[in-house]
Write a structure and sequence with these properties.
single chain; about 15% strand; 6-stranded parallel sheet; 3-stranded antiparallel sheet; alpha/beta; 9 helices; Rossmann fold
Length: about 260
């Protein structure tokens, strides 16, 4: 066993990574509450993600479609941190990703889609709030570009909403239960780029720790769960995550080589 590897990274075979907006900023997708965050620069943008306001106010919906909520970047590409997690999985590590992000960048980086649990949904599709029909966000945006300020469902005329969990909506309970089971089974729980301010996703840190996992938080700013962490890393995510994943992969390979 490599003594240069910290104790919390040694002998780990089951890893869960909770990822937040901070992991995607190097891909050009702004976070929400940081110094240059979407809602920091324009506090009014937050109402675009409040379900009751979105449903009840056509002007809110029109603003959402015109601005894409400030977050939909279909041309965004995975960065070093996304790729490092995908590469760690490719080494054979039992890695599951629980993401609060809606950008799909983990899958674009090569992480196995079934091993990425999107806690808050994804921006690539829209759903009709009346009949449940799903279509692509690009199709809805093409209609906006063609002059439909608030595109409605082609099937029933209902309101179209991006397939994400907005404020005031409950997380899918099956998805949350699945995430909690992954957290309980993990030996190492990484929280990467999340403010850990949004529950119940943030509470997965406590679920993991109370089940015996080591918690490592990689984030620029303090979080409400720092007191539970075995290690806190304040380095830039694009530097810290590749180094961390390489360390975990090397330890796993060393442990495998040491087995008779």
């Amino acid at each position: 066993m490599d003594e240069r590897v910290p104790h919390w990274a040694q002998g780990v075979s089951r890893i869960a990574a909770l990822t937040g907006a901070g992991i995607s900023t190097d891909s050009g997708i702004p976070d929400y509450r940081g110094p240059e965050g979407v809602w920091t620069r324009d506090p009014g943008m937050e109402e675009l993600f409040t379900h009751q306001r979105y449903v009840s106010d056509g002007e809110v919906r029109r603003r959402f479609w015109q601005t894409r909520g400030g977050l939909y970047r279909p041309d965004a590409r995975p960065n070093a941190a996304h790729r490092a997690l995908a590469e760690l999985e490719a080494t054979g590590s039992a890695l599951r990703i629980l993401t609060q992000n809606v950008d799909g960048l983990h899958q674009k980086a090569g992480s196995t889609p079934r091993k990425v649990l999107e806690l808050h949904g994804g921006m690539a599709t829209v759903i009709c709030l009346r009949c449940g029909a799903k279509t692509s966000t690009d199709d809805a945006l093409a209609r906006v570009e063609a002059g439909e300020a608030d595109p409605a469902c082609h099937d029933c005329g209902g309101i179209l909403q991006p397939s994400i969990i907005m404020f005031g909506q409950l997380l899918d309970q099956a998805v949350l239960a699945h995430a909690a089971a992954i957290a309980r089974a993990s030996q190492l729980f990484l929280s990467i780029g999340s403010s850990l301010m949004v529950e119940p996703a943030a509470g997965l840190c406590r679920v993991a720790v109370e089940s015996g996992a080591r918690l490592v938080i990689v984030n620029r700013d303090p979080t409400p769960y720092d007191d539970l962490a075995t290690e806190i890393i304040r380095e830039p995510i694009g530097d810290a995550v590749p180094r961390l994943c390489a360390m975990l992969a090397a330890d796993a390979q060393g442990s495998a080589a040491a087995r008779p």
